[in-house]
Amino acid sequence: MIDSIKRHWRVGLLVVAVLAATVVLFAPQFAPTAGAEGIGADDGANGTADGLTNLQFGLDLDGGTRIRAPLVGYTATDVAFQGDDPATVASNVAGELSNTTSTSVNAELRDPAEGGTGAVEVTDTNVSETEFTAAIEAAGYTYEGVRPGVTEETREATIEVIEGKINEAGLSGGSVREIVDANGRSFVLIEVPGEDRQDVEELIAERGTVRIDIFIPNDGNGTRNRGVVTQDDFENVGTASRGQSNQAYVPVSVVDTAPEGQATPAQQLQQAVSQADAAAGNPGTDGWRCTADYAESEEPCLLLVVDGEVVNSFGMDGDLLRSMTSGSWANDPGFRLTTGTAEGSFERAQQISINLRAGALPAELGDGSSSYISPTQGEQFKTYSLITGILSVFAVAGMVFLRYREPTVALPMIVTALTEVYTLLGFAALLGYPLDLAVIAGFIAVVGTGVDDLVIIADEVMSEGDVSSKKVFDSRFRRAFWVIGAAAATTIIAMSPLMVLSLGDLSGFAIFTILGVLIGVLVTRPAYGDILRMLLTDR
Amino acid sequence: MVAIEVPEVEYTDYTNRQLVAIPLAVLAVALVILGGWYLATGAPADLGVEFTGGAELRLSASETSDLEMGTPEARARLEDPDTFSIEPSSVQYVPGDETYIVTFRPEDLPQGAESGDFGDIAGEAEDAGFAVTGEDIVSPSFGSGVQTQALGGVVIAFLGMSVLVFAMFRTFIPSIAVVISAFSDIVIPVAVMNLLGIEMTLGTVAALLMIIGYSVDSDILLNNSVLRRTGDFYESVQRAMRTGVTMTITSIAAMIVMAIVAWIFGIDLLRNIGVILAVGLCADLMNTYLLNVSLLRWYSFEGVRR
Predict the structure, then answer these.
(1) How many helices, marked H, and strands, marked E, lie in chain A?
(2) Of B196, B210, B197, B200, the residue nearest B51 (C-alpha)
(3) Under a CB-based contact definition with an 8 Å cutoff, are residues B277 and B9 in contact?
(4) DSSP 3-state assignment of A193?
(5) A377 or B111, which is more confident
């Protein structure tokens, strides 16, 4: 018994591989764990399992949206900070830029030696590269070079915010990660199963800065007190709700803490409201009545501004206004960001709530690529690619039978090639690698190269008459194996660039072709040699 | 059942020059086609949306509309200038999936539109009574980056293969024979793609890389049989050919089936890979058994003696 296992260890290895693949594919212990790959998902991982097996499917076959885009900005490298701390550097550079705010310039200290060197970045799309370098020089700093893109810190922060947004929106199974291409450019790759492009882009593309302005009418000569409350001043952000007369709103409160001796944001808002009320001639004993078009309003308005655009204008009722002017509101600084009653206002409120909770994107997504496959189409692709795969295998089998006519040679060949694919599927399940169309193409390519190699083995072994002795068989088998090994090495070399380059789906194709070649050379093809020997030699 | 027998070729009837002429002529024609394409379009092949930027919609019947797919009305609706704010560059019908694939090119964007901003084409298609089952958008600047990477990938793969082949055989003529036929195996499918009007996509790049891997198999088999084994040259070639032709034809069969089935179902990625590999493997048959064989014959009978 042990002797025969020893003799046929190659077949034994194949059997072990097939059994292992079966366990991984079907055992519930290997089922995709909820939320393991995805972020904060309640169900499903990066891909979703089909229930029958533990395989996971990618967006191509399950439906969903994939967005790949760089983050926009410029980064100056090796800037000499000359002893200034990063915040000072950033504000000095921002001071030289007329068309942006200080929040879009950041500095990161890299090396504290000799007064410190580091990177300075601008994330405002309005600022051009020349404007940026001119500003750095005008602020009195020297730098080594400027590249498009943002710093690693900003990238990580942006990815975190996008993850937060996807989570807050309740989209399960989404994933966000950074990919770097061969030229060193980095991209953010966002995958959200089941959602269409429009929704995902709206969710993410919006930078989502929220602030409140106060409009003061001034007898038709309206002025705006900008940014009385900004993004970071909000806390306890609630979910979007509908109030009286169908107004959509987000309940928030304004921060009421501040360093010793400074007014808290809530107190600042009170002051701004009091000033506006006084400037407008105290119209609001019964509150402020704001007209639909705030620029026409005769009484002050609060303006809700998202990404620099006025989304809604609203007044205040008398109680709230009185508590603000008297200064008691800051003790309980609850507030409603109202988005109005118009169509889409509730979605607006939801969006604002998401943006406030997840935070604003530190940098914007630039031109990239996006793709969407509907879940029904994905389901169909699954069926179609299965049919394509099966028919391709039939074509191979047909050719092999036509060529050899002998079932003892041809049948094991087909079976061996299929076990190769089966073992690969096991690998896919084990790695949790989501199957997509490119991976399916890889499987078909593996069947192709696999059968090629088996043909080499069969022909070599059966050449020059019958093989009766084990010794003759072994020497021929070794000879065949040299060719197979060489061919496998070239395939691996040829496919490896695809694995490294970020050419999207194609890395799956490359990974599985290479894995398939490896499994083939190490496990299945030697086993086929053994099987053939058992069938052809007498002993 | 009819058995396929690989026919014996009487190489002795032809001189090396005669044998080499055909593959070299085909390679020259292919290079001329690529050169002409480059002069005419600025690129050696028709580049797909992934490389040039653009948008592609996959549309099927909508539940709320009684528009039937595959009818002249549906096509007319898609080609109606009022349907989309950007004129589609092509409308392709996939009968197996009852789907239309509509392609938009960045050069058709209205004046003044931001590059890569294709607007709400999905919404417009829905308004026209279709359901959007797929949408791909690539901005031109992103596409050009993909282009350089893909080209770089093919070059690196090819160089890597060449180095490996030289390391394995350690003799110049047999190694260069493999490298030249692999080069020709890549160039010919690209030329055929141009003639068939198939665009270069990421799938075709993968297929070209795959050809590097596949095509070298039969070359290695041939070289190995001739160089490493004792026996008559023609016998060795014959033996390698029997195996090699079987291998290649089996792969061609698989790829043709994959291409046809994927074409019926409108899975472009699989279709492109299938077509390119089938053409490339056909080119490989020619290159291996005409070009490579004659170089090897020259090497065995004359080159070694020098």
Answers:
(1) 16, 20
(2) B200
(3) no
(4) strand
(5) A377
| Nearest CA distance, A333 vs chain B (angstrom) | 41
- A32: nearest Cα among A436, A172, A24: A24
DSSP B5: -
Tell me whether residues A448 and B254 touch, CB distance under 8 A: yes
Q: What CATH number has the domain bearing residue B127? A: 3.30.70
Please count the structural domains in chain B. Answer: 2
Q: Is B162 helix (H, G, I), strand (E, B) or coil?
A: helix
List, for residues A1-36, the tens digit of each pLDDT value: 677 777 778 888 888 889 998 888 888 777 765 443
Q: Measure CA of the first residue to CA of the last residue in chain A; give whole Å.
A: 16
Closest-CA distance, A428 to chain B, in angstroms, reads: 19
Pick the residue of A180, A420, A490, A505 with the most B CBs within 10 A to test the interface with B by mutation: A490
Residue B264: other Cβ atoms inside 10 A: 16
Q: Cβ–Cβ contacts within 10 Å for residue A262, how many?
A: 10
Q: Tokens 């007044």, residue?
A: A315
Asked if residue B6 is part of any domain, the answer here is no
Q: pTM for the whole thing?
A: 0.76
Contact at 8 Å (CB) between A55 and A435? Answer: yes
Give the length of chain B: 306
Residue B228: domain span: 12-48+142-303
- Determine the topology of domain A43-71+151-205 in CATH: Gyrase A; domain 2 (3.30.1360)
Domain termination site, one of B107, B138, B169: B138
d(CA B288, CA B188): 14
Residue appearing with tokens 């709230």: A320
Residue A399 near residue B250, CB atoms below 8 Å: yes
Task: Indicate yes or no: CB of A405 within 8 angstroms of CB of B1.
Answer: yes
pLDDT single digits (tens) B249-297: 988 998 899 899 988 888 888 888 888 999 999 999 999 999 999 998 8
Nearest-Cα distance to chain B for A520, in Å, is 15
Helix (H) or strand (E) holding A394: helix A375-404
Which CATH number applies to A210-358? Answer: 3.30.1360
Q: Which residues of B touch A441 (CB under 8 A)?
A: 203, 206, 269-270, 273
Domain range A74-148, CATH class: alpha beta
- CATH code at A2-30+374-536: 1.20.1640.10
Collect all residues of chain B within an 8 Å Cβ-Cβ radius of residue A501: 149-150, 152-153
**Residue B97 shares a structural domain with residue B225:** no
Angstrom distances, CA of residue B285 to CA of A463, B23, B26, B245? 22, 10, 13, 7
* Phi and psi angles of residue A44, each rounded to the nearest 5 degrees, phi first: 75, 150
Supply B175's token pair. 């190694």
Q: How far apart are CA A312 and CA A294, in angstroms?
A: 9
* Residue B299: CATH number of its domain: 1.20.1640.10
Tokens standing for residue A487: 């061919």
Tell which of A377, A379, A493, A521 to mutate to test the B interface (max B CBs under 10 Å).
Answer: A493
State the number of CA atoms in the 13 A half-sphere of A101 facing the CB.
Answer: 6
Chain A residues with CB under 8 Å of B270 CB are 385, 388, 437, 440-441, 444
Last-in-domain residue among B111, B138, B165: B138
CA dist B226 and B234 (Å) reads 9
The pLDDT tens digits for A302-341 are 888 887 788 888 888 888 888 888 888 888 888 788 877 7
Residues B104 and B150 in one domain: no
**Residues of B whose CB is below 8 A from A455:** 243, 246-247, 250
- pLDDT number for residue B305: 56
What distance in Å separates the CA atoms of residue A87 and residue A331, rounded to the nearest whole number? 32
At residue A203, φ and ψ (nearest 5 deg) are: -65, -40
